[in-house]
C-alpha cells in the first residue's frame, strides 16, 4: 500500500491526514488513477493512428480484367453489324470497336501491389496453353432478349476456350483469389441498353440474327488490361501480354 499523505500534510479537520483511508482520498491513495491506466492490449490495438488511416487512403487500386484481344478484321465485321442495329428507336450505348474484347475474368478494383501476382498467374496459364480457334456467331442479350440489358455477339464455347478459362481460374484460386460470381459464358459485349424504348423491336432484330455468322479468329495469347472509367466511355490500356507457349498440335 502506498504511503499516506498524512506523513507530510499534518492535520485536516482535527484528525491527522494519515488516519483518512482510501474512501476519503481515492485518487490520492490509488497507486495509479484509473484514467491514467494504460489501455489494455486489445483496446490499444483497436486505436488506429493517423498514419494507419493515411496508408489506407493512399492505397492505389487498378480496375482491370484478363481478356482475349480481337483482330482488326473481326472488329470491322462487328462494327458493320453494329451499324445495322444502331437505329434511332433503340436506346443502346454501343461499345466502340477499339474496345471490343472477350473477357476471361473481370478482376475489378485491386491494389496495385497485387498486380505482379495476377501477372504470374496469367503467365502460368498461358505457358500451359496452345493456340486454338474460336467462332463468333449469333446475337443475343442478357438476361434475355425480351428484357435486354446487354446486347452481345455469341462465342462458340469450344473446349480449348473453356479449358483456358479453367486454367486461369485455377491459377488465381491458388493465390486465394475469390471465384467469379457467375459461370463463364463466352460472349462479346456490343452494347448496353439504357431504357425500354424500342425494346420489342430490338428483341425481334436479335431473334432474326440469332444464327448470324460473324467471323473466326485464332487465339494465341491473353492480356491483362486496365480499365479507366470516363463519362465518354472506358479507356482500356494493355498492361501486359502473355503469349501461349505452344502452337496447336504441339506436344507439351
**Strand count:** 11
Order of helices and strands: HEEHHHEHEEHEEHEHEEE
**Strand content range:** 25-35%
* Unreliable segments of 5+ consecutive residues: 1-10, 22-30
- For the biggest β-sheet, the strand order reads 4-8-7-6-9
Full CATH superfamily name = Cyclic phosphodiesterase
Number of domains: 1
Structural class: alpha+beta
Per DSSP, the total helix count is 8
Report what the structure shows.
The structure is a single chain. By secondary structure, the protein is an alpha+beta fold. It has a single domain (about 55-245), classed as Cyclic Phosphodiesterase, Chain: A (Alpha-Beta Complex). The protein is built from 8 helices and 11 strands. Helix 6 (about 115-125) runs antiparallel to helix 7 (about 160-175). The radius of gyration is 33 Å and the shape is globular. Mean pLDDT is about 85; it is low at about 1-10 and about 20-30.
List its salient traits.
Cyclic Phosphodiesterase, Chain: A; 5-stranded antiparallel β-sheet; 4-stranded antiparallel β-sheet; globular; disordered N terminus
Tell me the layout of helices and strands.
Blueprint (H helix, E strand, L loop, with lengths): L5 H4 L1 E2 L2 E2 L9 H4 L11 H6 L3 H8 L3 E9 L2 H14 L6 E3 L6 E11 L3 H13 L4 E11 L7 E6 L3 H16 L12 E7 L5 H10 L4 E7 L1 E8 L6 E9 L9
Antiparallel strand pairs: 1-2, 3-5, 3-10, 4-8, 6-7, 6-9, 7-8, 10-11
Helix pairs in contact: 6-7
